Amino acid sequence: MRSLQRADVIVMACAFALLGVACTGHGFAAVRGTEATDQTRTELLTEIAYPQLYPTPDGETHFREVKVLLSVASLPPTQPFAQSAVQPATTIRHAVFPPRWGVYDRDHNIFHTPADRRFISIRRGETWVKTSDGETRHFQVGDVFEVLDVGPSKGHITWMGDQPSIMLFSNHP
User: Fold this and answer.
1) What is the total count of domains within the chain?
2) Could you read off the pLDDT of 21-58 as tens digits, one per residue?
3) How buried is 159 (Cβ within 10 angstroms: 0-12 exposed, 13-18 middle, 19+ buried)?
4) Which residue would you say has higher pLDDT here, 17 or 171?
5) Quick one: 109 and 152 in the same domain?
6) For residue range 62-91, what is the model confidence (pLDDT) as tens digits?
7) What local confidence, expressed as pLDDT, does residue 41 receive?
8) Per-residue pLDDT averaged across 6-31, rounded?
9) Burial of 167 (0-12, 13-18, 19+ CB in 10 A)
């Protein structure tokens, strides 16, 4: 394994930015060997955040930011990196939506709920999601968000842009 170079750090930071994941802490460490130092451990991220669409007991849906704590993983011969605790997942599904899918629902205020709780990763195109409280968020390539508003909530409205959209659904319990 080669050492982590400055260019690798920049690429990794850009990847997190493209994922739409808010990163806090001290950033990435440029490590020149395979052994972690105390300084390296303190330079790694300590948490990330992602948007979550969730229902309240009254059935209304809202967005909030969820923070996930990270800890240092050291798996020689690789350099140390930050990771979260394992989260359960059940299935994944690729979904392809045609251009302007859901625009009719948006224009006629038609809400829906997902079949499963899931993380959604935008692989191509762009999408907008509107909660029942009226907040609308725009997601594009690299963004990741979580939807928890399965029935009996009021759900949300989703629509696509002018290009086909490809998403990866990672379902969880």
Assistant:
1) 2
2) 444 333 333 333 444 455 555 578 999 999 999 999 99
3) buried
4) 171
5) yes
6) 999 999 999 999 889 999 999 999 999 999
7) 53
8) 37
9) buried
Which amino acid appears at position 123 of this protein? Answer: R
User: What is residue 102's DSSP assignment?
Assistant: T
Q: What is residue 112's DSSP assignment?
A: B
- What CA–CA distance (Å, rounded) separates 121 from 105? 22
Name the residue with higher pLDDT: 117 or 8: 117
- Residue 60 lies inside a defined structural domain of this protein: no
- Give a yes or no: residue 54 inside a domain: no
Token pair 């625009």: residue: 103
- 158 and 101 share a domain? yes
- 109: phi > 0 → left, psi -120 to 50 → alpha, else beta; which? left
Distances (CA, A) of 14 to 8, 23, 144: 10, 11, 15
pTM listed for this prediction: 0.75
Segment 87-115 mean pLDDT: 97
143 & 100 share domain: yes
Give the domain extent around 76. Answer: 6-49+65-83
Question: With 0-12 CB in 10 A as exposed, 13-18 as middle and 19+ as buried, what is 45?
Answer: buried
- Give dist(CA 26, CA 24) in Å, integer: 7
Two tokens at 119?
A: 């993380």
Beta bridge partners of 147: 53, 118
